[in-house]
Amino acid sequence: MNFKQIAKDTAKTLQSYLTYQALRTVLAQLDETNPPLAFWLHNFSAGKIQDGEAYIEELFREKSDLALRIMTVREHIAAEVTDFLPEMVRTGIQQANMEQRRQHLERITLINLSDPHLDTEQQVRSDPNLDNLSE
Questions:
Q1: pLDDT 10s digits, 114-132
Q2: Among 29, 45, 83, 123, which is most exposed with the fewest C-beta within 10 angstroms?
Q3: Helix (H, G, I), strand (E, B) or coil at 118
Q4: What mean pLDDT comes out for the span 44-66?
Q5: What's the average model confidence in pLDDT over 55-70?
Q6: Is residue 1 part of a domain?
Q7: Which of 62, 81, 100 is the last residue before a domain boundary?
C-alpha cells in the first residue's frame, strides 16, 4: 500500500471539491449581483468540475477574472477548513465504521421468526438474546 500516493490522490480530490465549493459560493454571489454572469458561469461549469485544476485552467481561457475569483474563494475555504479536517476525517471514519459494524451485526443475528425452514425450537435455540433471559 502506497500511503504517499493515497495522500496525493486524496489531496487532489479534496482540492477539486474545494474548487466546487468555491464555484457554488461565487455562483451564489453572482446570483445576487450579476444574474446573467451567474447564468453563464453555471452553463460553462456544467460537467467540467470533476477535475478542479483542469476546470480553472479552462475558465482562465474564457474569463480570467472569474477564475481568479474562484481561486481566491477556494484558498479562503481551504484555510478555514484544513485545520479541522484531519481529526474530523479520522473521527468520521471511526464512527461510520462502528455504525457499519453495528448494522452488520444486527443483520447477521436477526432471526426471521416467520421462516418456515426453522421449527420453533430451532428458532429459540439460535436466538442469542434469549440466552440472557435466564439470568
A1: 555 655 555 545 555 555 5
A2: 83
A3: coil
A4: 95
A5: 97
A6: no
A7: 81
Burial pattern 57-86, b for ≥16 Cβ within 10 A else e, equals eebeeeeeebbebbbebbeebbeeeeeeee
Alpha helices in 3-132 (DSSP H): 3-33, 35-45, 52-62, 64-81, 85-109, 120-126
Residue 41 has pLDDT above 90, yes or no: yes
**Highest mean pLDDT: which of 63-77, 80-94, 103-117?**
63-77
- Show the cell assigned to 43: 452553463
According to the model, what pLDDT value does residue 37 have?
97
Instruction: Say if residue 16 is in the same domain as residue 47.
Output: yes
Structural domain that includes position 76? 7-81
- Cell 421462516 sits on residue: 115
Residues 6+ apart with CB under 8 A from 7: none
Assess whether 97 and 75 both reside in one domain. no
| Rg of the chain on CA atoms, in Å | 26
